[in-house]
Amino acid sequence: MEDDAPGAQGLMLAEVWPTGAAYAWETDDRRLCWASLAESGSSTRACASEPLTPPVKSPKGVVPLATLFTDGWVRLFAADHQEVTSATCDGTPLKVRRVDTVAGGARMLYAVRFTDYTTGNITLRLNYKGTTSETSFSLGDIGDRTCAETL
User: Fold this and answer.
1) Whole-model pTM above 0.85?
2) CA distance 123 to 126
């Protein structure tokens, strides 16, 4: 759909792996979209139906946004008005990829990748105006692998 085309910022690489990649972008009307593409030709794409959906949390917050599949399982999430400084998944250190800023600078997108469906809880250490805090979100209960087994 032409209306779902990337805005001036263009495509943002969320994650790359040997046989594919995941992308995110913001449309001109501030809807967030994401897609995954695989070497095999398979792909998925989706966009929020309304601008700034889900709403940007104020003064701060963490929002799970999307799950992307190809050669792995990627969770895209946002930190509103704050920065992720480290992450763990069920106590195991986790690599978090900083994707880019959207929503007029209020929302920073991040991605985490696992080899397959993974259960567990991600704990994030965040920085907000020089103050650190922690929060967590669940990866869900789909899958038979835990964070410690897949990292």
Assistant:
1) yes
2) 10
